[in-house]
Amino acid sequence: MFRNSTTLAIVLRKVRIGEIHKRLTMLTPEAGMISAMAHGACKIKSRFRTLSEPFGYLRVYLYHDPVKDQYKITDMESIDPFESIRKSIVKIYTASLWAEVVLKAFGGGESSGSLFRLFSSSLKALNESREGKEIMVSIQFLFRFLCLMGFSPVLETCSQCASAFKTNEPSFFSSRDLSFLCSRCARLKSIILPAGGRRYLAKTSTHSLGKALKVGLEDDSVRALKEVLYQLVQGVLEVNLNSIKSGSGIL
Ligand SMILES: [Zn+2]
């Protein structure tokens, strides 16, 4: 790593250090998740002040101190401030959930480049999304995140008895197994996913994000898919996500 470098970055988290400084945790395409000091970024007149807020899509100029093994931000430029996200409570909670997922997945490890593209394109879609449609972007982000990390659930067959689901047969998601079961193998407290929800995932998984977001889905499937994906992501990451708890009733 050179002492001076530049990279694209999306701010995941900020922590105030002392009176006027900020430490930013950011997702980058090549270096994965990095932490860097933004000196003076809390000063009223600092140019960094609003740029360094969570979900900001930036180009950052970094200095790496080899002795302390720390990054310092020497300059930053906004690529997209995603202003409409900042004006909507639902969008802020949605983006916060994704940022927490990225943080808990340590930036996706070796898949950080793909995760960066997914995160930035999803933020752009969320920024442009109409009111009430935010959940569709979130379903796509969470499902694509699972696929990227190698945890896409099997959609065609029951994970217990391996029988294939019929076209209109609902499936039963078990949070214990983190997989779909048929009605004969279903456990108590399974989430019932209508056949349309399963078909939606299978169909849109090969689409671009933009094309996937044009595919409609019935409300009961949306509600079930949301619950399934929240449980799947938390099960795979082996954590309870704070943003799902604090966003209950909003997300
Ligand atoms: Zn079965």
Tell me what portion of residues adopts beta-strand conformation.
15-25%
What letter string, H or E per element, gives the SSE order?
EEEHEEHHHHEEEHHHH
The fourth-level CATH homologous superfamily of the largest domain is Recombination protein O, C-terminal domain
What class would the helix/strand composition place it in? alpha+beta
Question: What is the makeup of the main sheet?
Answer: 5 strands, mixed, barrel
Low-confidence stretches: none
Give the averaged pLDDT, no decimals. Answer: 95
Shape: elongated
State the share of residues found in helices, binned by percent: 25-40%
How would you write the strand order of the largest sheet? 1-2-3-5-4
**Please, how many domains?**
2
From the 3D coordinates, which CATH architecture of the largest domain would you assign?
Answer: Up-down Bundle
Counted beta strands: 8
CATH class of the largest domain, named: Mainly Alpha
Ligand identities: zinc ion
Determine the number of helices (DSSP H or I, runs of at least 4 residues). Answer: 9
Question: What is the terminal-to-terminal distance?
Answer: 40 Å
Radius of gyration: 20 Å
The CATH topology label of the largest domain is de novo design (two linked rop proteins)
